[in-house]
Amino acid sequence: MENYLRVGVISSTHGIGGEVKVFPTTDDSQRFKKLKKVLLDTGKEYLELEVERVRFFKQMVIVKFKDYNNINDIEKYKGKDLLVTRENAVPLADNEYFIYDIIGALVETEDGKALGTLTEVLTTGANDVYVVKLPSGKEVLLPVIDDCVKEIDTEHKKVLVHLMPGLLEEEN
Fold this sequence. Notes:
Elements: E1 4-14, E2 19-24, E3 37-41, E4 46-57, E5 60-65, H1 71-74, E6 81-85, E7 106-109, E8 114-122, E9 129-133, E10 139-143, E11 149-153, E12 158-161
Parallel strand pairs: 7-12
Antiparallel strand pairs: 1-2, 1-6, 2-5, 3-4, 3-6, 4-5, 7-8, 8-9, 9-10, 11-12
GO cellular component, one term: ribosome
Subcellular location: Cytoplasm
Family: Belongs to the RimM family.
């Protein structure tokens, strides 16, 4: 899975002509306009699907795949992931990264102490929040702001943080 990035999940069929509603898992759902092919993770194999047309409805993307012209052809894929290869991923700007690339990263404090492992990234309205699992099994939530997250090294899977007062519960 490391060479693939999830761009959406088929949530349901749309009409009887083989279209599907896709919940986008990418920051920019408009990227679907440029997609020519996606990989469908069936759970057993990856099927390469050619995108025939794309339109948008509320927060969903309506996708029609070539050669899937009937609801019965596509219905079995509800809940399945749509993936792209890293080569077909949206180009990243400087200091941007894919969330997938930092999950499992070692989180260290500025003084070199290992804090824990980054297990999840929560996207909120204001800023993302890193969920870090401590060796004790507890979790700490770190806001992804300049005062807290100092450096992200995707190559070595390390995140350097400054622990602001009140972020870490004091153990008794």
